[in-house]
Design a protein that fits this description.
With 405 residues, this protein is mainly beta. Helix content is 8%, strand content 54%. It has an 18-stranded antiparallel β-sheet that branches. A two-stranded antiparallel ribbon has the order 12-13. A hairpin with a 4-residue loop joins β9 and β10 (228-234).
């Protein structure tokens, strides 16, 4: 993996040098070539996540939700100034998740090779941005790819930001589009004749359907004074295509069975505000509130509180707490409560009404001489979080972040 990353970095550097050199005089090009593409920092993140509950959508809103996920990410940040003294930043982000899911194994409980019983999720991202201090703008773009056992996704993002003359205020806009293709995996009792299972190694054909997502994000940040900063955001989004999950079973009031069915479009609108308050040299307080609504009938309120406290010049402690409350989409009913005459129906508790809390803390080490005396090892951070829902689902996550500079 390191050889691949270094090869990409060298190739990008060569392309940039050639492009600019062709458009400058010999003297300008000679001066510019001294500014090499350099590795600014490398971040490695590893986490372990486990959850359990008794409201699996795979079995109609009842049954195990047990799942474990081991995720790893390496982020390589490279920078370079061009002949106009504009800062170019390149990020190469490689992510791999390994998970097992008892609930997904119940798609086909009579086999030991159900689709998504265990799988690998691979999702790299490549991004570029350019910061121009002369006109106080930053612009960039990114490309992402994601693949798992039942879908593939391609994503594109553009962003632009403009700061005020005193750099106390900044407006930014981001736009993105994601084009997904999903395999239509069905429970065995509801499959047509000669229809495949979707499991690894099964050569029988299954259908594929598209799901496209488009989103915008507007934000305005303002420094109120030397202690207080404010950020306001709005992030409208639109989805179309296969928005239901075909292997989610539905059990109707009359005892009959089908698969989840949801509308082919969805509009979402989250609006949020973040406050950052610097309480002296040792403590930073952050508060975030978000209101969410969509045209499926869901409304949600989320509040997040976090503090960063310096215990010493080299150690900081960051407790956090998040509370969320949401209403169910209008198509949700528990196990055995959906009406067979309804146009749409689901028993997925992720889009039901519930309250949830997420509480935990992190500790960060930044020794002056580097972690374990390794100068380039800039910091080590460990975080733990515990999540609970009023539906009974619980989860725990442990994360380690290592930064090299």
């Amino acid at each position: 993996m390191k050889k691949i990353i270094l090869s990409v970095a060298v190739l990008m550097s060569a392309m940039i040098n050639n492009t600019f050199a062709q458009n400058k005089t010999t003297e300008e090009a000679s001066s510019y070539e001294k500014r090499k593409l350099k590795i600014e920092e490398v971040n490695f993140v590893s986490s372990y996540y486990g959850q359990d509950g008794n409201n699996s959508a795979v079995t109609g809103g009842i049954g195990t939700e047990k799942l474990t996920d081991f995720a790893n990410s390496i982020d390589l940040k490279l920078t370079k100034y061009d002949w106009k003294n504009r800062l170019h930043t390149f990020n190469i982000d490689l992510n791999v998740d390994f998970y097992t899911s008892a609930s997904s194994d119940n798609i086909d409980p009579l086999t030991v090779s159900s689709a998504s019983r265990k799988d690998t999720h691979f999702y790299p991202t490549i991004s570029w941005s350019m910061k121009n201090d002369a006109n106080r703008t930053t612009k960039g773009l990114s490309f992402s790819y994601s693949t798992e056992y039942d879908y593939k996704s391609y994503g594109f993002n553009l962003n632009f930001a403009k700061a005020s003359k005193d750099n106390n205020r900044e407006f930014s806009i981001k736009g993105g589009a994601f084009f997904d293709t999903w395999s239509v995996i069905l429970p065995p009792e509801l499959r047509p004749t000669n229809y495949g299972s979707g499991a690894h190694g099964d050569r029988d054909p299954i259908e594929s359907r598209p799901r496209n997502s488009y989103n915008l994000a507007f934000s305005l940040s303002q420094i109120i004074n030397k202690r207080l900063q404010v950020l306001v955001t709005a992030e409208p989004a639109y989805q179309e295509g296969l928005l239901s999950t075909p292997f989610h079973r539905i059990y109707f009031k009359d005892g009959s069975e089908s698969v989840e069915r949801l509308p082919g479009t969805r509009m979402k609108l989250p609006i949020g505000m973040r406050l950052s308050y610097f309480l002296g040299d040792r403590t930073i307080l952050r508060a975030f509130y978000r209101y969410y609504l969509d045209d499926w009938g869901m409304k949600a309120n989320t509040m997040n509180l976090e503090a960063t406290v310096k215990l010493s010049p080299y150690v900081s402690f960051s407790p956090f707490y998040r509370y969320n409350t949401q209403t169910a989409v209008k198509y949700f009913n528990p196990y055995g409560q959906n009406d067979i005459n309804s146009a749409y129906y689901t028993s997925d508790y992720d889009i039901s009404g519930f309250n949830s809390t997420f509480i935990g803390s992190g500790v960060r080490f930044m020794p002056a001489k580097g972690v374990l005396g390794i100068k380039e090892w800039n910091s080590l951070e460990l975080r733990y979080g515990h999540y609970t829902r009023t539906t009974g689902m619980t989860s725990n996550i442990v994360t380690m972040l290592v930064k090299f500079k």
